[in-house]
Design a protein that fits this description.
The protein is an alpha/beta fold. 55% of the residues lie in helices and 9% in strands. The protein has 2 domains: 2-40; 43-263 and 298-362, Rossmann fold (3-Layer(aba) Sandwich), CATH 3.40.50. The chain has 15 helices and 8 strands. Helix 8 packs across helix 9 (280-288).
């Protein structure tokens, strides 16, 4: 059958009853090009595996985007997750999310702790509780996926301490958290594989130098985000050196390693907010052009692959930490100042000073609020006391006298009545005396003398 058909096509041409084959070729070429582009943009997939049962993982940003996928994959492998969330553990959304995650992964070792990355005091409270334990609590991994960005055209915002929000959430809160957790990380046994994962973004390449201050006039959403990611990378390298310089009591090498991970451009809620500029019109345009976003941006699952590779790959523990991971492999950073010790030292010192000043200001604010609440409580108690006194006043007291004045008046009235009674009794006794009492006394004397 195929041979006669081929001969017929060669001799008489393509049959008119059948569709033109060039249509199939064009359609197939288009589909193949789209599939190849999509596969290339999705990036590499993680092929590493590791048993995570019994391992304790602290994680921020584990409820949405790349962080949610990472949390699911680690929980599915048996890890004990402690999700640091802005909402309290009693929040209905968070309760449902954790219950759903437990059911889907068949892992009940998933918990939530409230940590507001916009509040340094909240970060300190949690980290202090964590390290205030004897013996030290187990800690195998810290994954800091939480980040924020202001959409283009958005205004600059600050935390209650007066720190720019992007700088605070993306860098300073992580610096503060790891700084306090440092004793707990260094106290882990030598045979324990401890990893600190710091997700970053390739926008750090366009960031201005860290030694150039960014004023409100120079501020823009893109520059602020890129600068925060560059600072996080510089701090990651410096933190690795900080851990390596620790002399363990057992004289063994340090077992904690820091890894910087670039997951690539991904269709996360943050990216969607950036593309739509945080407006309904932008969302409408995004929906219309969604196929382009689907084609050129990674899915959250593929975006999490590099983070999973940095957490599961066994060969990474053979060398020192401080490496940059992208597309499930080690790469070099595109900027020299990432490894500059002078830049790192200056950044560390300025961050310490900023945190110290902000915490003092926050403590003073909390003290004022506490004092105001105390005064308000005293005022309310005084108002309630006056109301009770008003309710306890005797009936018929139309002059508005106080209770003490009423008691004094009653006592005076009793004394006056007692005096009148005594006087009346005296008068009665005087009226009962017999007449001629003097003669009687004299006769009595005479009688006695005779």
């Amino acid at each position: 059958m195929p041979i006669p058909f081929i001969l017929h096509v060669i001799q008489e041409g393509w049959p008119e009853a059948l569709p033109n084959p060039w249509h199939f070729i064009r359609a197939g070429s288009t589909i193949a090009a789209v599939a190849a582009t999509k596969r290339y943009m999705e990036g590499a997939a993680c092929t590493a595996e590791k048993d995570m049962h019994g391992r304790v993982v602290l994680m921020t940003g584990g409820t949405s985007g790349i962080g949610a996928i990472t949390a699911y994959q680690l929980a599915q492998r048996g890890a004990q997750l402690v999700l640091l969330t802005r909402q309290p553990a009693s929040d209905p959304f968070l309760v449902d999310y954790i219950e759903d995650l437990r059911e889907r992964t068949n892992n009940n070792l998933i918990y939530a702790e409230q940590v507001d990355l916009c509040d340094l005091h909240s970060v300190r409270q949690f980290a202090t509780r964590w390290i205030d334990n004897v013996p030290p609590r187990r800690l195998d991994m810290v994954i800091l996926c939480a980040a924020t960005m202001t959409p283009p055209g958005g205004k600059r915002t600050e935390t209650p301490e007066g720190i720019e929000t992007t700088w605070m959430v993306n860098y300073l809160a992580n610096f503060h958290l790891l700084g306090i957790l440092s004793p707990a990380i260094r106290a882990q046994p030598f045979d324990r594989d401890v990893r600190i994962i710091l997700p970053t973004c390739s926008t750090y390449i366009s960031s201005p130098p860290l030694d150039v201050p960014m004023d409100e006039k120079d501020w823009s959403p893109g520059r602020a985000y890129a600068r925060s990611k560059l600072a996080l990378m510089v701090f990651g390298q410096a933190y690795q050196k900080h851990l390596d310089s620790y002399n363990r009591p057992d004289k063994l090498p340090m077992n904690a390693r820091v890894f910087l991970v670039d997951p690539g451009y991904t269709r996360t809620p943050g990216m969607r907010r950036w593309l739509t500029r945080g407006s309904l019109f932008g969302l409408f345009i995004y929906i219309i052009l969604w196929l382009l976003a689907w084609l050129f941006l990674k899915s959250p699952f593929m975006g999490a692959q590099s983070i999973l590779w940095a957490t599961l790959e066994g060969s990474l523990v053979r060398d020192k930490g401080g490496k940059l991971v992208k597309e499930c492999m080690e790469v070099d950073s595109a900027r020299k100042d990432v490894n500059d010790e002078e830049v790192a030292k200056k950044l560390w010192e300025e961050s310490d000073k900023l945190i110290e000043a902000a915490e003092k200001q926050s403590a003073m604010r909390r003290a004022r609020e506490k004092e105001e609440q105390r005064k308000k409580g005293q005022k309310e108690e005084g108002t309630q006391g006056k109301k009770q006194q008003t309710q306890e006043k005797p009936k018929g007291n139309s002059k508005g006298r106080s209770k003490e004045e009423d008691e004094k008046a009653a006592t005076a009235a009793e004394i006056e009545a007692l005096i009148k009674t005594i006087a009346k009794n005296k008068e009665q006794k005087d009226g009962q005396k017999p007449k001629g009492g003097k003669n009687t006394k004299k006769s009595g004397k005479a009688a006695s003398s005779s």
